[in-house]
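Hey Z.,

So I finally got round to the magnesium ion thing we talked about over coffee. Here's the setup:
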Amino acid sequence: YHAKKKGNSYLFFNDTMNRQAVKRLQIENLMRFGLKEDHFEVYYQPKMNIRTGKLTGMEALVRFITPKKGIISPGVFIPIAEETGQIIEIGEVVLNKACRDVKKWLDDGLFSGRVAVNLSAKQFSLPDLTSRIDVILQKNELPSYFLELEITEGTVMDDPKDAIAIMRSLSARGIHLAMDDFGTGYSSLAYLKQFPLNTLKVDKAFIDDMKTERGRNMVDSIVTIAHNLDLHVVAEGVEQADQIEILKKLNCETVQGYYYSKPLSKDEFTEFLKQQQTKAAPSLITKQKKA
Ligand code: C2E
Ligand code: MG
Ligand code: MG
Ligand code: MG
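And the result:
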């Protein structure tokens, strides 16, 4: 193709493109190897009730742990996996491990809520999505009640009519559905009302913006819309105590973020669940005494 400038800028441009293509290919190969060698792990981030400070659920977040390159961030490999289609296989690994872990916590009496798993657009539009999910749930002997799927606006707005049908079939199984990163995509309010959602997750960008009055008003409005549509609200990326105070005033019921905990490995999360239980014990005792 044409290159008007034959100086450094063209060479630089070409070189950058090359380097990006090489890096992409490297990651694609690493992912193929990683899928074979079981290098994809699932971490869990607690979702907490803002009033009681107790655990209400958790989000499963994939971690790509390579022996040679260390941990590769989802922000880096997920977009590439989406393009290559590897996200389908990775997504199934995550779903399978999340179901396995929650089943164990359930059996051990440590947790009896839902695990939220992120579902990519590619997975969402698989014609046999629901049967694939059924198979994974059955294999792990986990009732669908314990599963929540997080989808983004981009996933459902591509073909909203079709998306509604898919969401209904998931919802009919008792699987909960959450709209992730709400407000950052291009979803329309007209559709929001029609989607069979349970939860709306307010993106971190809005939470960060609560420093200003307009930013707080924005979150206030989102929470109000969600509640008027009978949706549960989760604030994402909450890091500071003053954000908790504001969100309490705005009637947001659930928070997720570094303020409570970063995503934890399976073993770390098991410890977190045990700590939660000892925290819950005193109030149980007083309740029993009163009765
Ligand atoms: P997400 O689903 O919106 O997940 C929330 C992200 O915010 C996670 O990043 C989490 O670690 C991070 N986070 C949580 N609290 C805080 C906080 O207080 N401060 C800051 N700065 N960050 C916080 P992570 O794990 O790097 O994942 C990034 C994105 O990659 C996810 O965004 C999701 O879109 C995607 N992703 C992660 N795991 C999976 C998966 O298993 N499947 C698919 N399809 N996508 C995934
Ligand atoms: Mg998510
Ligand atoms: Mg999110
Ligand atoms: Mg996000």
